[in-house]
Amino acid sequence: MNDRSPRSRRPHRILARFVAVSWRDLAMSFGPALLLGTAAIWLAIRLIQPAPPTHLTLSAGPPGSTNWSAAQKYKHILAKNGITLEVLPSEGSAQNLQRLLDPAQHVDVAFVQSGVEQKGQSDQLVSLGSVGYVPIAILYRGPVIERLSQFRGKRLALGPDGSGSHELGLALLKLNGIVPGGATSLLPLAGEDAAHALLDGRIDAAFLSGDSTQIPVMAKLFRAPGIHFYSFAQAEAYARRLSYLTDITLPMGVYDPGTNLPSTNIHTLSPTVELIARDSLHPALSDLLIEAAREVHGHSTILQRAGEFPSPVTHSSIPLSDDAARYYKSGKTFLYRQLPFWVASLVDRLLVIVVPLVVVLIPGLRFVPLLYGWRVRSRIYRWYGALITLERSALGELSPRDRLVLLEKLDDVEDSVNRMKMPLAYAGQFYVLREHIGFVRERLLAQDDTRGAAGTAGQPDATTARPEADSAVDSQAGPARDAVPAFPTAPGPARGDA
């Protein structure tokens, strides 16, 4: 019997296979981490705040009022940061509040006097803080009046419906038993109309407030002869009955020391005006509005000290927003302190995406080398099953033809192994596998040599014994081949690793 040498095969560049990369292994290794990262990005995008809008609408008050003047300053400050502020005139605080509550009005923020809101109107609104006092000024003609109850039966101008002076005037008069529909005439006059009516004697008193009356009009009445400024002798009592009011004392001569205006100390009552916004206001715009409020309302006046406003202390039932509370406690965030507004806004939103990626991917990437190594080793170890099958088949009695079949299968295994792409880090295990393939080949060939030597020693004449041996091989070839465990040829995916 002739020993069978390994069949001729096309040479493989094994070294190049070590440099090549298996994209399938990379995909299977990095795939889970990429899927987790993609899921984290998707979740972050769903939760991320959109970019701040470039347009805001503010409902202020009548043109020329203190609230209107403040709104114009807001407009100039926000324009420096690329925000266009549209200022809408209104009758006063009550109308401002109604605009905020009506989505069709598209009003984002407004000046609202504390005390005008009704129960249940604060669900969709938040406060950005108090920004100033708006004291009520009651100017009257005739003899000195010490209590509000003395206005019963007189003609009173409370301002139009929707103004803060109208709402506060009704609340104060109600405590004194004066209600609409009685003997007292409550007229919807305000501003210049109320001033002219008072000077002409068509009304007896005017309830005026800075949210609905121009400053020059009030100054004109202060100086008019025969017109008195009502002083609340019971100011503390009213402040306790109506918790949104503050007792404010105007010292003698505070308006004009030269003419000693007013000529005595005056006690008046003042609600605070608050910056009220929809609860959907972007956090970055909340910070900008409070910054503008500090610039506009933070200086000292005859009514307040420097830095007293804006203040997180509110007197309405509308809650302070979480963003405003954070700003009053800690100020601007680091990004908005160090970067321009729009750059900080962009970086802030990007961090919402980057942070989940870092949190998810860094732990995930730690498992990528382990998974990749497992993938590479599994491609090596799967061939040991084939080698064990071949070696066990060689342990029994085999005919020369069966041995040829096993050697062909071993050649197929070796071909497939040589075509594998293998990282250099696993070259040692690759060469161990090739050594084991050689070991199985030697077992098959050594068994062939041993059987050949034994056959030669037992036959006296090879020439005469040859025909008989050939007939024995032919008669056993079929059954022996069937006894060999089936083993598939080299699997196709080994070529597809690329």
Short description:
By secondary structure, the chain is of the alpha/beta class. It contains 15 helices and twelve strands. Keywords: Membrane, Transmembrane, Transmembrane helix.
Written description of the protein model:
The chain is α/β, with parallel strands linked by helices. The protein has three domains: 14-37 and 369-497; 52-131 and 273-332, D-Maltodextrin-Binding Protein, domain 2, CATH 3.40.190.10; 135-270, D-Maltodextrin-Binding Protein, domain 2. 50% of the residues lie in helices and 12% in strands. The protein has 15 helices and twelve strands. It has helices at residues 14-19, 23-47, 66-79, 93-101, 164-174, 191-200, 215-223, 235-241, 283-297, 322-330, 334-338, 341-395, 400-418, 427-458, 462-483, and strands spanning 55-59, 84-88, 109-113, 125-133, 136-141, 155-157, 185-187, 205-209, 227-229, 246-250, 266-270, 272-278. The strands form three sheets. A five-stranded mixed sheet has the order 2-1-3-12-4, with helices on both faces. β1 (55-59), α3 and β2 form a beta-alpha-beta unit. α3 crosses α9 (283-297). The longest helix has 55 residues, at 341-395. The model is unreliable at 1-12 and 460-498 (pLDDT under 50).
